[in-house]
Amino acid sequence: MRIARFDDNRVGIVRDDGIHDVTAALDALAAHRYPFPPHDALVAHLHLLKSHEASRVVPLQKARLLSPVANPGKIMAAPVNYTRHLEEVLKDKGIHHGNLINEIHKAGLFLKATSSLAGAGEGVRLVHTDRRNDHEVELAVVIGKKARGIAAAQALGHVAGYCIGLDMTIRGPEERSLRKSPDSYTVLGPWLVTADEIPDAGNLKLEISVNGTVRQQANTRDLILGVAELIAWASSFYTLHPGDVLLTGTPQGVGPVRPGDVMLASLERVGEMKVAVSAAAP
Question: What is the CB-side half-sphere exposure of residue 257 using CA atoms within 13 A?
Fold first, then answer.
């Protein structure tokens, strides 16, 4: 399935003729009282959408796409997980700003604020526009089942699906989590493709262009740590819950964007999303 969130928090199944609105399926989700569970309730029950009859079909071009995951408990991210990106970071002071840069086995994962989440239709709203703001396109993995301390051989069985991720970044000397966590600096989309439709996440073409010029172009087979290894590693530190998001790292070619730019990101077997860049309101 291809599952989209759109407009005023509607949920739909994406097919060739548009988005089939199955929002009524959410009525079957269990109601919760405070304190609320640390996971995304829909991602934990995606099976509810499979047989639900659509109330209408919305043309894709008329839908405002939101993040397909509404309530991730955490957003985890892998730095420098492509060898050629590590090389460009080390060479370009405009990227590393004197920060200590280690390959991923030493750097570990980092966390982004869940408040940074946005969908393709919401766009990126840049802050600190006096500094360099970069695009970083990535394969995003959405966890589907609770996991703790699992082996890599078991990891893919805990994946709900995949989408495109944009890990937007302000360049500077501060910690990654600060510079990558402003509102709208984690874009997920255009929809969630369930894991059964992507049998090999380790061989997907990935690309982003800005104003029609290709900036980043790679294949997930070039990841230093693959999807299964990243999930297993994350689960050795955190309990993973349905809806948790794992950004797997960006390839070489990161570069700046400015208000008025338009990014077009694509991921094989998932699709493409157009994301407009603007300046955040004062």
Answer: 36
Looking at residue 92, what is its pLDDT?
66
Q: Show Cβ contacts of residue 103 under 8 Å, excluding neighbours closer than 6 positions.
A: 80, 86, 224
Last residue within a domain, chosen from 65, 94, 120: 65
Print the domain residue range for 165. 66-279
Question: Residue 113 — φ and ψ, nearest 5°?
Answer: -65, 135
Same domain, 40 and 172: no
**Of 204, 68, 231, 70, which is closest to residue 143 (Cα–Cα)?**
231
How far apart, in whole angstroms, are the C-alpha atoms of residue 205 and residue 214?
Answer: 13
Mark whether 57 and 71 lie in a shared domain. no
Query: pTM for this structure?
Result: 0.94
d(C-alpha 103, C-alpha 89), whole Å: 11
Rounded Cα gap, residues 76 and 248, in angstroms: 9
Q: How confident is the model at residue 104 (pLDDT cuts 50, 70, 90)?
A: confident
In this structure, the chain runs to a length of 282
How far is residue 68's CA from residue 70's CA, in Å, rounded to a whole number?
Answer: 6
| pLDDT of 100 strictly over 80 | no
Give the burial string for 233-262 (b: 16+ CB within 10 Å, else e): bbbeebebbbbbbbbbbbbbbbebbeeebe
Q: Please name the residue that has the structure tokens 């996991």.
A: 147
Can you tell me the distance from the alpha carbon of 100 to that of 138, in angstroms, rounded to the nearest whole number? 22
pLDDT, one tens digit per residue, over 179-196 is: 999 999 999 999 999 999
CATH label of the domain that carries residue 98: 3.90.850.10
Q: What does the pLDDT read at residue 50?
A: 83
Which pLDDT score, from 0 to 100, does residue 101 have? 62
How high is the pLDDT of residue 203?
97
